[in-house]
Each structure stands twice: as C-alpha cells, then as structure tokens.
Predict the 3D structure of the following.
Amino acid sequence: MNKKIALIIGGGAAGITAAYELAVNSDIKPIVIESQNSIGGLAKTLDFEGLKADIGPHRFFTKDDSVMKLWTEVLPLQGEGAKDDKLLSREVDFKNGNANPEFDDNVFLRRRRFSRIYYMQKFFDYPVKMNLRTVLNMGLLRTALAGFSYIKSCFIKRKENNLEDFMINRFGKVLYQMFFEFYTQKVWGRHPKNISKEWGEQRIKGLSLLKALINKFSPKKETSLIEEYFYPKNGAGQMWENMAKTIVEKGGEIHLNAEVLGINIENNRVVSLKVKDVNGIYDWYGDYIISSMPVKDLILGMNNVPEDIKDIAEGLPYRDYQLVSFKVKNFNLKNNTNWATIGDICPDSWIYIQDREVNVGRIYIPKNFSPYLSNDIKETLICMEYFCDKGDRLWEMSDDEIYKFGIDELIKINALKSEDDVERSYRFKTEKAYPAYFDTYSDFDKIKSFIDSIENLYLIGRNGQHKYNNMDHSTLSGIEAARIITENDDKRKLWDVNTEQSYQEAK
Ligand SMILES: Cc1cc2nc3c(=O)[nH]c(=O)nc-3n(C[C@H](O)[C@H](O)[C@H](O)COP(=O)(O)OP(=O)(O)OC[C@H]3O[C@@H](n4cnc5c(N)ncnc54)[C@H](O)[C@@H]3O)c2cc1C
C-alpha cells in the first residue's frame, strides 16, 4: 500500500519538527519544501568565515516536557564541562547528562544566562530590579523620581488606551521613559502610544515591578526571568540539521531551493501546491499540507479566497531584521561580574541597548553561548541587532555604510575604543523576523476560521500562525500537527500552542 504523504512547507524549527515526528512515529511520508538553500529558518546558524552565529541570540528554553524530551533525544545533555567552563574552572550543573562536548559533537550545553541592560554606559539587571546596583547606576535623584512615579502609578491609574498607558500604570512614568519607551519603538518601529494595550497584555503578561521584586525572593521563578538555558554545541541550527538527517534516514524528503508559489483549493481541501524549484514550476500533491510559511503569503497564494480574508492577510504586519557583525580585537564591555570569561569580556549572551542616541537594539555575543562557535576560543565576534523595515534607511544602507554606522554606534556607547579594533565585518538581513500584532491582526480570528474550514491544511510555527513564537512553541506546534494528523484529532487544537505568552526573547 502506498504511504500517505504530508507536504510540509518550510524547513524551520516547526516544519522540521513536524517532519521528524511523522518520519519517526508514523507511516506517513513527510516531504519538506524549503525555499532557502539551507534548513533552520530563523533558527539556523550562519557561518562567517569560520565564526558561527545564529540569526540573533537563540537560547533554548521550554516549560513543555514533550519539547525538552524531543530536544534531548536529538542532542544529549552535556555530561562534562564545556571548553570555557574547564579553562576557567567554572562550576556547571550537568547532572543527568552524558555527552562530553570536548569529544562529541552532539551535545546540548547547559549555559548560565547573563543578559543585562546597558544604559548610560552602565549595566542594569534585566528586567530592571530595584536593588543597590540600580540605585547606584541611576543616582539618588533619579531613583527617588522613579520611586515616586512608581508609587503614583500604584494609586493614580491612567485610563488604558494604549501600550504607553499600560506600561506607565505598571512601572511609573520615569522607568517607562528610561527602559520601555524608546526601546519599544526601536524593536517595533512604533511609539507605544500607537500600539494597543492588548499587545502589552499578551507580551508582558505577568510582569510588573512588584512581581520582579517578589520573584527575587521566591523559589518559583517567572519564566521571563530564568537564569539558565540550553544550547547546541555548534549553534541553534544543529538541532534542526540533526533532525533533518533522521528524517532522510527514515525515508522522508527535504527539498531546498523549492518555493511554494500557489495553493490550489477545491471543495475545502488543498488539492496541490504550485512549487518552483531548479527544474521549473510543478504541481505537488499530498494528503496533508502542513504550512509554516507566513500565513499572509499562503493566503495570498490561494485561489477562491473571500475578499475580506484576503484584505486581513494583506494587512498583517511584520518587522524585518539585520545582524551586523564584527570580529574584534578588543571588546570594551569588560566583565564586572564574578563569573569568569575568556578574555575577560562581559559574560552576557546578549545585551539590551537602551541609549536613545543609537539605533542598535541588542548586542549579541555568540561565544558566550558556546565556546565551540569558532575554531579559536580567543576570537570574539560581536553582533549588533537592528530591527528594521525592508526599504527603510538602515535596510537600504550599503554594506560599507552599515559597517561604518555600526562601528560608530559601538564607539558612541563605549563598547569599542576605535575602528582599528575591528578586524572583519559581516552582514545578514532577513525579512519577516517578527510577526506583529498591529493593524489587521485584530481580525485574525476570521483567518483562523477560514483556515479551519480547509480540511487537510494545518498551520504551524511563528509566521505560519502569525504568533510571537519562540523555538519551543514552534517545536511544539510541529509535534502537535503530527499528533493531530496521526490521531485524527481536531485540528483547531493547533491554535492552542503558545497561548501563555509570559516569556519572550525580546523585551
Ligand atoms: C532575532 C531573533 C532572536 C530569537 N531568539 C530566540 C530565543 O532566544 N529563543 C527562542 O526560543 N526563539 C527565539 N527566536 C524565535 C525563533 O527563531 C522562532 O520561533 C523559530 O525559529 C521559528 O521557527 P518556524 O519554523 O516557526 O519559522 P521559520 O524559522 O520562519 O521557518 C519558516 C520556513 O519557511 C520557509 N518558507 C517561507 N516561505 C516559503 C515558501 N513560499 N516556500 C517554501 N518555504 C518557505 C522559510 O524559508 C523558513 O525556513 C528568535 C527570533 C529572532 C528573529
């Protein structure tokens, strides 16, 4: 009997996981269709002439046991210290582990999380905590003003018309202006006044100054405040590459440079996909279609879509992104913690940059994720993260212009002493890095109902479901899609993945 076929659009975390689950646990043959020339999507690992970096910092963290079980099935937990832990005699808790990262490649490292805010050339805890360091950093006057404005916000509540009101009610005006106003604008390209308060409820649900203080003394941590994460020895992409090997070994297929251009629907079923690959444009047929491509593009590529659904899809907003990276001789953000580091640079995996005079959103330091991301542990790659919109000033800059711009910003915040400290420069741009909850997103329920009416179509992943997913949510949506198909369960359950939005990778 011929096996049933699942066509899976997109070879990122979600698509690869769905394919892996079907290949390992079912009789259905997965066929992954990926438009790029490598798998991993937003969670792939880039290689800049031997210096590896992800598309921005990618920590692995999950509250879901099935996700952790799968990740550690693919990459066993470390059972010995990593190179930097050993060289620096750092204590790392690796109980239950077995793989030795010094000899094995397939290792899931357990890393200590440092990620602080850098503002006014000082490090603040992330999220901001009311402790002695914050008081010293801010100075007595500013601390008193922040305290008064916080107390005021506890008693005099603003009417919540937008995100600005939402944040001021929770943190007070002074802290809002210092830590949220400009940063939110940097990340999303919109002032908090022009963002709905519901966005705040979804994104930072459960976090407030009071909760941050309670968390400090509580054994049960809020998920956004976790101080440890896991990470594949050779970069985030290693997780999906390992899964891809298994998919092929088990008889599945992965097609790179193959782009889905159209979706042919008849009688509430997807009949075929129009796919362009190196051989031309052909119709591909499958029993089940699992899609992690942006839902906007998916719907605009369908036939017979009602006009209102098309309009909602067309209006869905995204934020694009670029990574500007420098191999540096000297990084001037030095270590002021008691956690030893190679070269005595700051131990942060990524740093939130709050200063208003620069555009960089975060600085990401790959070697603090894994000492195996470069051949020489002494080499340092510094990656500047710019949130932007395709076509804007930052996006359109030539490579030379953006390198000069980035170096100037690093010098401005004293992270670099001079441009002579930069040895090599790299740039990577990606579109639709962040699905945003603005504009027609308020009507997204109509898109859900429309998709639910197409029997054999299953939407998964970050842009697939237009949800601010992390890798674990994308992984879980892949696991769920495979389960729902094999158990013939209600496919509407897929929308339930990541309904608890209380921790995120960007503030
Ligand atoms: C800067 C940044 C930092 C992040 N940090 C973290 C973090 O610390 N921890 C964390 O857990 N998560 C983090 N994330 C989120 C994480 O990257 C995503 O949740 C996850 O990678 C999404 O996987 P996905 O498979 O859902 O989507 P994607 O990775 O977007 O995969 C979709 C795939 O579909 C392909 N595709 C698109 N259109 C077509 C088409 N027409 N035909 C064929 N293929 C197509 C794309 O090429 C892509 O490979 C971060 C994201 C960013 C941008």
